[in-house]
Amino acid sequence: MTELRSVLFLFFAVLVTPFFGIAVPLGGLFGYRPASFLAAVWARSIIEIAKICCGIKWEVRGWENLPSEPSILMAKHQSAWETLFMECTFPPQCWIVKKQLLWLPFVGWGLMGIRAIAIDRSSGHSAVEQIVEQGKKRLGQGMWVSIFPEGTRIPVGKRGRYGMGGAILAARTGAPVVPIAHNAGEYWGRYAFKKHAGTVTVLIGPPIATAGRTAQDVNRDVEEWIEARMRELNPERYAQA
């Protein structure tokens, strides 16, 4: 049954994605807001399809922690689910992504439409400067900035190295950081075809102040908050960590 439900999800997801893959970049010709709106509709469509076909529901705690001003979202990365959830739930945002994602048909075009900051991770310092330069511009335009500090999807129960790019952007701009923890990987696995029924718990943390602080301190606070919440969500997964 799980396999069949996963096949149905894939069928409907593939069915709707090409339309938005064209509509989002076209919307971007008129500014980031039309593109972001269309991207949010697509993302909402996909997680609703996952809910109907695969039984993946969600609950959110901490809505009251969201600041009113443009902020930097830094989240745990376990699957594709949280990317979709963040895109359709939080204010219009741009993503810091690896440039290879722009080569993907439809999805890559959509990332360009919402003004994603695409970086070459191998370029080191220049990549960080690109994040700061473009991220500062996006924040000034009223967009939020989203980043997975671990850089890639991490298996459930594991911790990746938290990169400094988002923290450096936060420290240089003074924008607050909103940490996000979740257990989506329990139901929508890392690169997994099969999706499992269950309820994803999303925890939104209090904003982390960044003005006048070092990037190292900001990054440490983000990592400590997220990883502590992960152990609260699924302590059995971290018993050996």
Automatic annotation (TrEMBL):
GO function term, MF aspect, one: 1-acylglycerol-3-phosphate O-acyltransferase activity
GO biological process, one term: phosphatidic acid biosynthetic process
InterPro entries referenced in this protein's UniProt entry, alphabetically: Plipid/glycerol_acylTrfase
Pathway: Lipid metabolism
SUPFAM superfamilies: Glycerol-3-phosphate (1)-acyltransferase (SSF69593)
Entry keyword set: Acyltransferase, Transferase
Limits of the Phospholipid/glycerol acyltransferase domain: 71-185
Statement: the UniProt record of this protein carries the keyword Ribonucleoprotein: no
Alphabetized PANTHER family for the sequence: 1-ACYL-SN-GLYCEROL-3-PHOSPHATE ACYLTRANSFERASE
Name used for this protein in its record: Phospholipid/glycerol acyltransferase domain-containing protein
Naturally occurring in which organism (per UniProt): Usitatibacter palustris
